[in-house]
Each structure stands twice: as C-alpha cells, then as structure tokens.
Amino acid sequence: MGILSACSSSIICKVHCTCFTFLYRRVCAFDLVVASPVEDYFLYIDDLPYPEKKEAEKITQPYLDALGEDYSNCCQGTAFFPLQSCMNHSCCPNAKAFKREEDRDGQATIIALRPICNGEEVTISYIDEDLSFEERQALLADYGFRCRCPRCLDEEP
Ligand SMILES: C[S@@+](CC[C@H](N)C(=O)[O-])C[C@H]1O[C@@H](n2cnc3c(N)ncnc32)[C@H](O)[C@@H]1O
Question: Taking a C-beta distance cutoff of 8 angstroms, is the pair 146, 91 a contact?
C-alpha cells in the first residue's frame, strides 16, 4: 500500500480538487455540499459601493426574480482530490477529510483526530467505522479490498 505520512499539526493540509465531476468511488472521490455560488454572487453585489451596486443590480435583478427562493440552494456533488486519493483507509483513522464552512470551492481540509507522530501514516475512514467488523468488511469489499488496518487485524475471527 502507498502511505501518506505527515507532521503533527492538527490541520494537516488543505487539498484542492482538480475537477468537479462524478467518479467511481474506488478512485477516492469525496462527497461535497457547498453553499450556493449564486447566493455568494448576490452577497458580493450587495456589498458593492453605491454606483456599482446600482449598475450591477440592473443586470442581476431579473435573474434574482426569476430564480425566486431557489437562488440559495446549496450544490451537492462529488469531487476528485489527488492528495486524499493517496490516503489509505483505517477503521481507527487518525484524520478526517471534510469541507468546512470557511473552505472555498475546490478546497477541502484534512484534520487530525488525535496527535500524529512524524512519519506515522495518515489515515482516514472511507466508511462508518462504528459498524461491526463484518459490516465494515462488507462495505470495503465494495471498494475492492479487504481491510488490513490494525483494528481489523485485531478483530479478525
Ligand atoms: C484510494 S487508494 C489509497 C492509496 C493507495 N494505497 C495507493 O497507493 O495509491 C485505495 C486503495 O488502497 C488500498 N487500501 C487502502 N486502505 C487499505 C486498508 N486499510 N487495507 C488494505 N488495503 C487498503 C486498497 O487497495 C484500496 O483499493
């Protein structure tokens, strides 16, 4: 297995997605929900100084009227993150990959769940690690492998 190891800081890194497309999950895609970019755009217009705001609103108001309440719908999708794709799974992971409110589009954060020693492998969980050994193995079989993490080796009958 390839290994991604890292330093001991709690926020390990911010990773960027290279494309925003639907991928087979074995490639290690990452499900995302991001705030509506349309809403962000209207908030930006709202903050413009007076003459520019007036000008911009002449163009944006018809779109806002047409969209109605749907303008603030968040977007959901799956993205490919090259760094996260290098991270092996563990049923007792030491890190977690997710998008925080402050992460902008195309960015996600890997955060340590506990202190990680220099040189220690950084692992995330691909599944709900609260499941039983059999349930975890069944889900991971769908990813195409049998889990050999320390917890599974320990729980293996
Ligand atoms: C997203 S890749 C992870 C990076 C990969 N190890 C590499 O070198 O490119 C997922 C693959 O890594 C292997 N893998 C990841 N976690 C594993 C684990 N806990 N036990 C066994 N194999 C694992 C499996 O072959 C799996 O299909």
Answer: no
97-125 pLDDT, tens digit per residue, is 876 666 666 667 788 999 999 999 999 99
Per mean pLDDT, which of 1-15, 48-62, 69-83 is the most reliable?
48-62
pLDDT of residue 77: 67
- Domain parsing of the chain, residue ranges: 11-17+86-155, 37-72
**CA 89 to ligand 1 centroid distance, Å:** 6
Tokens of 116: 């990680």
- Secondary element (H or E) of residue 53: helix 50-67
Ligand 1 atom 7: residue of nearest CA: 2
Query: In this structure, are residues 122 and 5 in contact, taking their beta carbons and an 8 Å threshold?
Result: yes
May I ask the CATH class of domain 11-17+86-155?
A: mainly beta
Structure tokens at 92: 């007792």
126-138: average pLDDT? 95
Residue-averaged pLDDT of the chain: 77
> For residue 18, which phi and psi values (nearest 5 degrees)?
-90, -25
Q: In angstroms, what is the span from residue 132 Cα to ligand 1's centroid? A: 20
Ligand 1 cavity residues, CB under 6 Å: 1-2, 28, 85-86, 88-90, 143-145, 147-149
